[in-house]
């Protein structure tokens, strides 16, 4: 019985997140109607309050889902660019950072994660999804420092700077009047900055 109830709750959460994702992408957080959103999900406002507390809590859940998808997609792109040589982990790091920044051109990501997210939820570096992103970066940096691909730098400092640089570059692209023109500048600057951490052979 409890299992069925839990299953139903998860199903309702998923429906609300999907409806909110669509509404926030199309209309923005401020203009998305709670009544329309819950009606689209086939649920009541009560279900929204029960699962997320309020509209802000629902945005946090949508941002968490999207940010997680962004990180996974960036890791996948990074992994594809890596071969098996020593410098390949470095190429993967650069490709991952560039991929994350490039996602700022995706209209859904741009509006929900990079514009409405910080405006409503505050500093993105404090979001749980960013903390898991940082943990992944930390893992990669540690491996590269230990294998000599990166200079013997403080792992926490390097991880936070690399992560923060990619995030802030994406925020800059998203907020720009001409995102497509800003993107190559942001990616190039990220690569040049990251290059300072690389051990020169």
Topology of this structure?
Blueprint: H1 2-27, H2 34-40, H3 45-52, H4 55-81, H5 88-102, H6 107-121, H7 128-146, H8 155-175, H9 179-195
Structural write-up:
This protein is mainly α. It has 2 domains: 1-53, Homeodomain-like (Arc Repressor Mutant, subunit A); 63-197, Tetracycline Repressor, domain 2. 77% of the residues lie in helices and 0% in strands. It has 9 helices and no strands. It has helices at 2-27, 34-40, 45-52, 55-81, 88-102, 107-121, 128-146, 155-175, 179-195. It is elongated, with a radius of gyration of 19 Å.
% residues in beta strands: under 5%
Which consecutive residue ranges, at least 5 long each, have pLDDT under 50? Answer: none
The major pleated sheet works out as: none
- Provide the CATH architecture of the largest domain: Orthogonal Bundle
- Shape designation: elongated
According to CATH, the homologous superfamily of the largest domain is Tetracycline Repressor, domain 2
What fraction, in percent, of the residue positions are helical? Answer: over 70%
- The CATH class of the largest domain is Mainly Alpha
Briefly, what is this?
With 201 residues, this protein is mainly alpha-helical. It has helices at residues 2-27, 34-40, 45-52, 55-81, 88-102, 107-121, 128-146, 155-175, 179-195. It has two domains: 1-53, Homeodomain-like (Arc Repressor Mutant, subunit A, Orthogonal Bundle); 63-197, Tetracycline Repressor, domain 2 (Orthogonal Bundle).
């Amino acid at each position: 019985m409890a299992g069925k109830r839990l299953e139903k709750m998860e199903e309702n959460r998923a429906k609300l997140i999907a409806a909110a994702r669509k509404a926030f992408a199309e209309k923005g957080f401020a203009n998305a109607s709670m009544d329309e959103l819950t009606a689209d999900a086939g649920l009541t406002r009560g279900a929204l309050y029960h699962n997320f507390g309020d509209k802000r809590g629902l945005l946090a859940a949508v941002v968490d889902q999207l940010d997680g998808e962004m990180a996974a997609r960036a890791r996948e792109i990074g992994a594809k660019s890596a071969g098996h040589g020593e410098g390949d982990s470095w190429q993967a790091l650069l490709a991952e950072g560039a991929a994350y920044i490039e996602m700022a051109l995706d209209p859904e990501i741009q509006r929900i994660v990079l514009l409405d997210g910080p405006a409503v939820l505050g500093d993105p570096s404090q979001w749980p999804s960013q903390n898991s992103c940082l943990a992944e970066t930390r893992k990669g940096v540690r491996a590269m420092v230990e294998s000599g691909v990166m200079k013997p730098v403080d792992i926490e400092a390097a991880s936070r700077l690399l992560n923060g640089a990619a995030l802030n570059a994406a925020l800059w692209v998203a907020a720009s009047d001409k995102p497509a023109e800003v993107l190559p500048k942001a990616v190039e600057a990220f690569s040049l900055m990251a290059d300072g951490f690389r051990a020169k052979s």
